[in-house]
Amino acid sequence: MDRALFVYNPLSGDRTIPTRLDYLINRFQQNNILLQPYRLTKNEPDKLPHILAENDFAFFLVSGGDGTLNSVLNILLKNGLNKPIGLLPFGTCNDFARSLNLPVNLNECLNVIFSGKTVDVDAGLINEERFFFSTCAGGLFVDVSFKTHDELKKNFGPFAYYLKALSEVAHMKCFPLKIETEAETIEENVLLFLILNGTHGGGFANLIKDADISDGLMDIVLIKNCAHIDLANLFFRVLSRESLNDKNVTILKSRTCKISGSSEVLLSVDGEKGPALPINVRFINKALKVFVK
């Protein structure tokens, strides 16, 4: 019988996963897989590296949002573990899973895993020390995910982020940014920059409609300094899944980049607080295997 490690965040999304543990264990046993649960707990030493060192698992199952996924996958990659990853995308923000077109129904998610089909996907690496899998962003709105109250996220989901973001538009400030890629160098006053791995990012759908999560390339989106009304119009266009083709938006593709600016600019990495500028980013092609439809 194969063994799989199930790492879950009990506070993610609507917090129902802990009530489904028996169902999960039974489904895996029916498929001749012994599931070992591991509960992530805040403010306690993480025993996950020790468990990984002491055990051999056929694959890993992770439940939570992009932030939970980031912390778990960083541990796996830093320990050289390239076993397949199964996702239960039940956090507030699930951009990585959405970019892979994964279902949000528990039963359908399990069927994806039991089908055994995997795809190799890219990962970004910041300053040679921290991986990200969906988005690295800086500037306006980026602190929304870690400033929004947990109860708001539980009750309103991603909409809580949008409400918080709209409340900050009136206080928006641009900042000078320098972006150096393999092909060009750009210096611009911007409100926001995003480095994306897939089609979805920052809780928004299809930001880069032709993005390929397995091509080894990052998409860099720059939102230039603009009037409040122009930014609001752009915000609602993104919510409506319209194209980012706009005079106030620049989009670049690259395998590597260096981004320089004030160290006071806030950065977010997969929805969690990130490092200060400057940062060096490179994309690792096909860094991990994920179960897909």
Automatic annotation (TrEMBL):
Residues 1-129 form the DAGKc domain. InterPro entries: ATP-NAD_kinase_N (IPR017438), Diacylglycerol/lipid_kinase (IPR005218), Diacylglycerol_kinase_cat_dom (IPR001206), Lipid_Phosphate_FormReg (IPR050187), NAD/diacylglycerol_kinase_sf (IPR016064), YegS/DAGK_C (IPR045540). PROSITE patterns: DAGK. One of its GO terms (molecular function) is metal ion binding. Its cofactor is Mg(2+). The keyword Lipid biosynthesis applies. Keywords: ATP-binding, Kinase, Lipid biosynthesis, Lipid metabolism, Magnesium, Metal-binding, Nucleotide-binding, Phospholipid biosynthesis, Phospholipid metabolism, Transferase. One of its GO terms (cellular component) is plasma membrane. The keyword Methyltransferase does not apply. Coiled coil: none annotated. One of its GO terms (biological process) is phospholipid biosynthetic process. Pfam families: DAGK_cat (PF00781), YegS_C (PF19279). Belongs to the diacylglycerol/lipid kinase family. This is YegS/Rv2252/BmrU family lipid kinase.
